[in-house]
UniProtKB/TrEMBL annotation:
GO terms for molecular function: unfolded protein binding. The keyword Mitochondrion does not apply. Keywords: Chaperone, Coiled coil. Belongs to the prefoldin subunit beta family. Residues 119-148 are annotated as: Disordered. One of its GO terms (biological process) is response to cold. GO terms for cellular component: prefoldin complex. Gene3D superfamilies: 1.10.287.370. This is Prefoldin subunit 2. CDD domains: Prefoldin_2 (cd23163). Residues 119-134 have a biased composition (Basic and acidic residues).
Length: 148
């Protein structure tokens, strides 16, 4: 009988532990998503810089921020470094995408193991693309009337 009471007492704690672990896993997934987005923005910036300086004279002076310090260099020196940085960022993004897929699978396995289902709030539904519908608030503007 004492073990039965202990099991009853441990069950809510166990559910809470499962919920906490699930929330942690979802948080990690969101962190990976945000890091990938951040790095993709940096790759885009590197591409813009490369496209802007590539047609210019290689001996022309340009400035590059290195560790918070603005350094004067030539385009000949800067262009390969920017290209290497871009390639490095792309490699990190591919690794993060692999980690993202691994984390998604881990979360899916965790959901099936503990029979977790996400409840949607009443005011919103999601379509196949994951966009929310029905919960946005906007302004509806009618046609301008000519007879004021």
């Amino acid at each position: 009988m004492a073990s039965k009471r202990e099991d009853d007492h441990n069950e809510p704690v166990n559910e809470q532990a499962v919920a906490n672990k699930y929330a942690t896993m979802r948080s990690e997934l969101n962190q990976i998503y945000s890091k990938i987005t951040e790095l993709e923005m940096e790759v885009s910036e590197h591409s813009l810089v490369m496209n802007a300086i590539q047609p210019l004279d290689p001996s022309r002076r340009c400035y590059r921020m290195i560790g918070g310090v603005l350094v004067e260099r030539t385009i000949r020196e800067v262009l390969p470094a920017v290209h290497r940085n871009k390639e490095g960022l792309e490699e990190v993004i591919s690794r993060l995408n692999e980690a993202l897929e691994k984390k998604k699978k881990e979360i899916a396995d965790f959901e099936t193991q503990y029979k977790i289902r996400i409840r949607k709030s009443d005011g919103e539904t999601k379509d196949e693309n994951g966009r929310k519908e029905g919960s946005s608030q906007g302004v509806l503007v009618g046609p301008a009337s000519g007879s004021e």
